[in-house]
């Protein structure tokens, strides 16, 4: 079991240009900041998606009758709704908003499609497979480090959004405390800590939102497990999802 860090430092990587398709993010990062073994590099999903060519024009989508009907009820562009449908493997809630499951297992509003910081009539999709993207980026950095791809997501029963991990490599998404003893000597039987999400949330505090976005953060001094279970709960074990699908 990994011990908590004695001290943890977070560094903003300033000076990144506006990312476009084909840009080499690892090379850009290394030109601005020296990555060390053990670092955790957090990257906003937006820059990863842009580098991978995930920008789309709304005219790329031909709305189905289902999308047109849903768009009418939602007050949204039918082309946008069609994009959400195409980026989703399942629709959990269709009204008053679209809550969907992406093809890689993430659950979020509008399949995580972003309309901010892109041109008119443009949308930005999430990376096709963020964990594969994180692995590719980590290997290109050439260090024994971890990479987390972050996005912001709403939470059930709470207002506001928080940073979450949608992709990761070189780090376990969960720290398993089961079998460890509490302060009274009782063995823990349930606790699994979502450390990738916790790190993503901390990164989001540093990154900022809107026009102040700095889309890359490095954490140094964090001790973290290298292997563990997935963050995305299996459909058959997800009680809330089973109720939504009724």
UniProtKB/TrEMBL annotation:
Signal sequence bounds: none
Stretches assigned to the Coenzyme F420:L-glutamate ligase-like domain: 16-221
SUPFAM superfamilies given in the database record: CofE-like (SSF144010)
InterPro entries: F420-0_g-glutamyl_ligase (IPR008225), F420-0_gamma-glut_ligase-dom (IPR002847)
Domain of life from the UniProt record: Archaea
One matching Pfam family: F420_ligase
Keywords, alphabetical: GTP-binding, Ligase, Magnesium, Manganese, Metal-binding, Nucleotide-binding, Potassium
Example GO molecular function: metal ion binding
Entries under PANTHER family matching the protein: COENZYME F420:L-GLUTAMATE LIGASE, PTHR47917
Name of the protein this chain belongs to: F420-0:gamma-glutamyl ligase
Species whose genome carries this gene: Methanothrix soehngenii (strain ATCC 5969 / DSM 3671 / JCM 10134 / NBRC 103675 / OCM 69 / GP-6)
Gene: cofE
């Amino acid at each position: 079991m990994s011990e908590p860090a004695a001290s943890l430092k977070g560094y903003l990587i300033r000076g990144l240009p506006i990312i476009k398709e084909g840009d080499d993010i690892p090379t850009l990062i290394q030109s601005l900041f020296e990555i060390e073994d053990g670092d955790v590099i957090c990257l906003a999903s937006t820059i990863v998606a842009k580098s991978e060519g995930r920008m789309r024009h709304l005219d790329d989508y031909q709305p189905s009758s289902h999308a047109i009907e849903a768009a009418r009820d939602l007050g949204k562009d039918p082309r946008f709704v069609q994009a959400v449908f195409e980026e989703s493997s399942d629709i959990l809630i269709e009204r008053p908003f679209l809550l969907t499951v992406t093809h890689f297992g993430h659950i979020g509003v509008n399949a995580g499609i972003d309309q901010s910081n892109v041109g008119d009539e443009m949308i930005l999709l999430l990376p096709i497979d963020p964990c594969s993207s994180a692995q590719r980026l980590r290997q290109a950095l050439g260090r024994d480090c971890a990479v987390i791809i972050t996005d912001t997501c709403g939470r059930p029963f709470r207002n506001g959004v928080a940073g979450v991990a949608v992709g990761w490599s070189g780090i376990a998404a969960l720290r398993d405390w089961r079998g460890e003893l509490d302060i009274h000597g009782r063995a823990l039987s349930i606790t699994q800590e979502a450390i990738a999400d916790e790190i993503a949330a901390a990164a989001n505090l540093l990154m900022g939102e809107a026009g102040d976005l700095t889309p890359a953060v490095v954490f140094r001094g964090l001790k973290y497990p290298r292997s563990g279970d997935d963050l995305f709960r299996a459909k058959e074990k997800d009680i809330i999802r089973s109720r939504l699908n009724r």
